[in-house]
Amino acid sequence: MIRSYATAAARRSFRLKGPPLGLDHFIQRKRALALWRDIVRTIAAIPDQVTRNEMRQFARGEFEKHRDVNDIGHIRYLISSGKTEFDAIRSSLINANLLV
């Protein structure tokens, strides 16, 4: 019986990707996911299919490009600059009447 618990615990550890996150990494991950969700919601509101696809590809490419960044300072910078860039793009889409 004890052996089956040890086997189950060993299997669970294989699902984890790397060491556990620290509090700062956890908080920044939450902020990055919140930014991604905001971007996806805004993109979904764009009526033009071509523009919507281009925006989604651009956003996904930026997130994928920086996927393996581990430095907290760099992560904070990326989230901050991403929010600024996203706000600028969103306002330009509103000014161009592509987003209501």
TrEMBL record:
| Predominant localisation class | mitochondrion
Task: Write down the CDD domains for this protein, in alphabetical order.
Answer: Complex1_LYR_LYRM2
Which UniProt keywords are present, listed alphabetically?
A: Mitochondrion, Transit peptide
The record's subcellular location field reads:
Mitochondrion
GO CC terms, sorted = mitochondrion
Question: Which residues are in the Complex 1 LYR protein domain?
Answer: 30-87
Coiled-coil regions listed in the entry: none
Q: Which family does it belong to?
A: Belongs to the complex I LYR family.
| PANTHER family, alphabetized | LYR MOTIF-CONTAINING PROTEIN 2
- What is the annotated role of this protein in its UniProt record? Involved in efficient integration of the N-module into mitochondrial respiratory chain complex I.
Q: What name appears for this protein in its UniProt entry?
A: LYR motif-containing protein 2
